[in-house]
Predict the structure.
Amino acid sequence: MSADRPDGDRFPWAAELDGLHAKVWERLARGVHDARAAARHPVLATISAAGPEARTVGLRRADRAAGEVEVHTDLGSDKVAELRADPRAALHVWDRKVQLQVRLRMKVEVLSGREVEERWRGIPQEGRLNYGGEPPPGTPIGHWRDHEATVARERFGVLLGRVEEIDAVVLGERPHRRALFRRADGWAGRWLAP
Amino acid sequence: MSADRPDGDRFPWAAELDGLHAKVWERLARGVHDARAAARHPVLATISAAGPEARTVGLRRADRAAGEVEVHTDLGSDKVAELRADPRAALHVWDRKVQLQVRLRMKVEVLSGREVEERWRGIPQEGRLNYGGEPPPGTPIGHWRDHEATVARERFGVLLGRVEEIDAVVLGERPHRRALFRRADGWAGRWLAP
């Protein structure tokens, strides 16, 4: 049936580069504000000494004007050590509702201490349990009960991602559409073969 | 309420290492057989010259006995070039229904030509459109319409992942449970701080 539809019927925003770029940031912003949106829980990929690593994170800020995204983290987690050694990262979202895959390529700065005081005040008590705990994440323990969830203000950090490239693919109908947007050319964008 | 439940009430399979290990492979197998299961569309992370890369893939095989997983690919895609240069990869699944995050660390072999003939025969015509297309994936094009979806048997390949480690986290209730299973110790597993 889809072949009979005029171009852009289901995905009018994907007909032009500007519309696709705007949709990417609109869906990321939705993830920040709606805990059930696809973009609330992207996958963050980093590089460790042993190879690539990928894990779910929570998206806390998405700023189109600055080209920045933010994730909160326990400073004792492996991803922080990995990003301090190599700040290059990728953030991946598959947004099924709009059939959009977003891949951000970015450099990540780890913020801590006074830099994150303001953000800490905005986190409810239950959420604060994600920052702290003894022993720290990834430490071998004898049994899963041998871990104490404690709130540790000094373990709260922020991963500030400066986006360099956005690779966006729309899969809803054929032909699939794929575009690359780069900070270096002012996010003008260009189409790529999907 | 969850604090009042006896341990393992909602996640009895996560009470012991064996049960958690079995659940990981059970959910991966479900992804292979059920297109709507979470594990059907994991995120594959690789390393390119520019940094980490992450994209959605389709899981086609999960073999607990061999510790192997399989993904089909267009041999013209960037991930194939990346894996030929560096075979280390991570496969990530967030399985919301059972609150389980699975992270596989693996080495990937790229199969092609005669090695994949049998698998090609099992792919329906519509699915074959994922292998081929001109120009090849990632090539700049003037407009999204400037791409022809063609079936190219010689562009069909298989990514055979030999799993080295499984990092599994169960997030459903506190304390969260996290375990590491390694091929090197016969997948015996050990608990890690979450």
Summary: The first strand of chain A starts at residue 43 and ends at 48. Chain A touches chain B through 51 residues (CB under 8 Å). Chain A has a mean pLDDT of 95.
